Amino acid sequence: MTAPVATAPPAWASWLGAGGLIPFAVLALALWWPELGHQAFISQALASYGATIASFLGAIHWGLAMRDHPGAGAGPYLWGVTPSLMAWLALLLPPAGGLLGLAVLLGLCLLVDARRYPHYQLQAWLPLRRRLTLSAGLSCLAGAAGLLR
After folding, report:
1. What is the pLDDT of residues 76-100, one digit of tens each?
2. What is the pTM (predicted TM-score) of this model?
């Protein structure tokens, strides 16, 4: 199989990624205004969204391994399910702890991506991944801080 050529993400991918940050930012900000009420629902919505994104990030590795390296061994497949399992555990924690755990998990996903994307010749995607992860992780941290203040 011919290896893909490392190219920067298309503009539409950047726009979709930025749009995907809207729920992170809006929900995190909402947790700073307890007078809005529904703090439990808002924190659950933020954590659920973060868990969904973490699962998506793990699934990328599963798909890349299937496409490019079906005989590469279990490593990419094991990592592919790890974010989903860790995100599920974060959802079982108290709200602020779960959001903190998800921020850490999103950072861990980025660290793994930074190590593995060059293997798949996808290093050109890392600047976008860094920006998105920083924003998503900070939103989870801000949401946790809003709950704890």
Report:
1. 999 999 999 999 999 999 999 999 9
2. 0.93
| Residue 59 belongs to some domain of the structure | yes
Q: Name the percent of the chain lying above pLDDT 90.
A: 83
Q: Which of 106, 116, 110 is nearest to 76 (CA)?
A: 116
Quote the domain boundaries for residue 141: 23-29+41-148
Question: Is 16 contained in some domain?
Answer: no
Tokens of 48: 């659920």
**What is the Cα–Cα distance from 14 to 82, expressed in whole angstroms?**
25
Nearest to 44 by CA among 148, 132, 145, 140: 140
Q: Alpha helix (H) ranges present in 36-125?
A: 39-68, 75-91, 95-116
Burial 80-96 (b: 16+ CB within 10 A, else e): bebbbebbeebbeeebb
Q: How many structural domains does the chain have?
A: 1
Residues 117/126, Cβ–Cβ less than 8 Å? yes
**Is 3 a member of any domain?**
no
